[in-house]
Amino acid sequence: MCSRLRYSQQWTLIRDSNEHKSIRTVLPPGPCVPVSRELLSGLSPIRSLRAVVRETVGHQLLEIWDQHCLRKCLNLTALNKHGRVYDDAQFGCLSWSECENKLLYVAEKSTHDEESDRSVYCEDWGEALTNKSVPVMCVVNMQSGSVSVLQGVPPDVSPGQALWAPGSQSVFFVGWYHEPFRLGLKYCSNRRSALFKLDLDGNCESLSGDNLSVSCPRLSPDGSTLIYQQGQVFGPHSQCLSLQQLDLKSGKTSTLLDVVNRPHTGEFAGVYEALPPCCWSADSQRVVNSLKSLMSFVWKLLTVQKDLMVVCCSSPNTPPTLRVGFLPSAGEAVTWQTLQQPIMTFDFHWTVLDVTPPQDEDNTHYSGLDFGAVLVKPSRLLHEAKIPLVVFIHGGPHSQFPAEWNTTTAGLAKLGFAVLMVNYRGSTGFGQDSILSLIGQIGSQDVKDVQRAVLTVLRMDNTLDPKRLAVIGGSHGGFLSCHLVGQYPEFYKACAARNPVINAATLLGTSDIVDWRYTSVGFQYSYDQIPTAEALAAMLEKSPIRHAAQIKAPVLLMLGGRDKRVSPHQGLELYKALKSRALPVRLLWFPEDGHSLSRVDTQVDCFLNTVLWLQQHL
């Protein structure tokens, strides 16, 4: 079938009758109900009406459901007020007004009444957002069934993440500045943007500072406070963010959580990911966020509803499970209830390593930084006396491998491989200093960190086979994989890389995040940047292509033909370099896929071919 299936499931919880917030009983869940064609959905605040934006053949419908039946259905496509509704995480939203008479969402601006030459280039927002260019905010009047596009948004701003302000006569939204041109937005929290308020008469004002990045506005239940995330513009594409709170009565903004530069062991390490859609306590006094531990487990907050927290929990040997618990009073512990046990568990052994770079690998500007890794091993040896080790490197580079369920890692461990997932310096979750330490050091500091982690685990664990080592990764993880087999040609016996950066100099003119291409090698970026010989030389110097002649390990390349972040010609460049030297290389080309290679059939193909490649060459 090769399609991604989505479904909903309902649980009934019975609370204790006393005032203490606890769950007495969890009734068995209802059947799974497919929701694959639902793009967006949202419950109204009073009567729990359910709004659904649904995809049908050639049309997008807005449906309103109550407890009994379908109450209203609007064909948004036929109304022809706008283009496609946005359902992505960057711009998309579906917000009910307090009175339940209005519904707010974001869609592509209509071009049916504009005279335009189809040959004129239309900018988009980059990887995974290629069909999104000019978003507009739209309001549905529930009584009349009419749709209107809100006017008054500044012409140099693209709106998204919109929600109703108290009183439902104005809206809050995040606006991304798109002049002089758009840069890729997905996975980039460093884009210039601001928090705005727009009333229904078209009057718009900015509520946040200039030359900052903002995201995730969340209104308190009592309507008194708006919180949002804030970061810097340019620099690292993902960063430690501060949490700001805006008092709507006084108009004053203050910092609720600041950027964490260097956390101590066991302390709060900062905010790096988007806030959950509902994260406020019922009394508007507390905000709840996820705990992504790099040490023992991951608790991901999905929502908070009237102080009932719903979380997704997992670890490297336990697939995700749903748990619920009421937000406790100060000093009390949460009593968690598991809604459903995982279908299966795995008896993998896993451990978290803390790695300290030796003095000659320390960063003099950010001295004393450690980094981490997660080792996952099969519980029993299948055939051999020692276990082959696969070094799995995350992309980004500013992302992370938490100690959570990972299907690739689990599949490899089930097949008899040990897997080492490395969080080199520059990964998120270790403080802003760690992120900044990688700027200008790609291709050296991160490469040495991965190699140091491998040497550390081989020294600690004598069940691992040092003669059967492979390296895999995607994007920057592919960049590092290719660096490692080039810089340590006798060490690794196989490599599998997905959409890797191979030559940063030739990537400069084709990537949707050209700013990162400069920043990563230590140059300041500005929109009017013209490439210089110095910058191009630095990019080439830090690229895996420099070491291609030293590569001996067989290399498997997996490339997406529609990748706008890392052009597939990057992988082709390495492919030709290896082929010209008669070295073993295989290239898989997925013409309809992008940077993440996320189509179901592509994921299956990549995993199976990676496993076969590892088994063949280890």
Automatic annotation (TrEMBL):
GO terms for cellular component: cytoplasm. Residues 409-618 form the Peptidase S9 prolyl oligopeptidase catalytic domain. It catalyses: Cleavage of an N-acetyl or N-formyl amino acid from the N-terminus of a polypeptide. It comes from the Eukaryota. Pfam families: APEH_N (PF19283), Peptidase_S9 (PF00326). Keywords: Cytoplasm, Hydrolase. The keyword Cell membrane does not apply. Residues 58-287 form the Acylamino-acid-releasing enzyme N-terminal domain. GO terms for molecular function: omega peptidase activity; serine-type endopeptidase activity. One of its GO terms (biological process) is proteolysis. Its main location: cytoplasm. It is found in: Cytoplasm. Transmembrane segments: none annotated. Its EC number is 3.4.19.1. Homotetramer. Belongs to the peptidase S9C family. This is acylaminoacyl-peptidase. It comes from Dicentrarchus labrax (European seabass).
